[in-house]
Description:
Blueprint: H1 2-40, E1 42-43, H2 47-51, E2 68-72, E3 75-82, E4 88-90, E5 104-106, E6 111-115, H3 120-123, E7 129-131, E8 136-139, E9 153-155, E10 160-163, E11 177-179, E12 184-188, E13 208-210
Parallel strand pairs: 3-5, 4-6, 5-7, 6-8, 7-9, 8-10, 9-11, 10-12, 12-13
Antiparallel strand pairs: 1-4, 2-3
Amino acid sequence: MLISRIFKVIAVSCLWLLLGCSLSHGTDTDIACLKSIKESLVDTRNYLNSSWKFENVTEGSICTFLGVECWNPNENRVLNIRLPDMGLKGRFPLGLANCTSITGIDLSSNELFGSIPHNISKIVVFATSLDLSSNKFSGKIPSSLANCSFLNVLKLDHNQLTGQIPGQIGFLVRLKTFSVANNRLSGPIPSSFNSSIFTEESFANNPGLCGKPLSPCV
């Protein structure tokens, strides 16, 4: 009888320990996500340095960080990160992959450079909105963006992107806002982009682009 009770106590204790580890996993990874972003970017205007403090992190504390929105204000689970026009410099922050429940990313109007990661669909798996406009990103638009099946908004305009537009992106059924204007893209606009939804403004000022809704290709 005594042995049976001891076994039950141990079993219950182990169950609570496993549940505790599971519930804290999201918290730990989201904190690691924000730490990595802060460390990887040059904060020229001191916005992150003055707001993102990790010395005494408690449940919900990261939800008060500048530009951070959480699913629940009392839980360290990041929903959106909005850091537009903050003078941030550096490459695309790969640490975003640790914000495993994030849906909105706005890094527009900064000084981010280099290529957009080829595996971006594995970094922002559940993104509904991705705004990287008005930076200095270069290289090709990664075709893996087509695997971000929840995207409603994709803004890559005002960068230095080259090459062709991946046709697969045009098949994203939820995509309603799309812009690659003011880049250095070339080639025909894929027919997968419905010209009744995506107008000329979405593709403007790319000297090498042609086809609907722009001028016909020669």
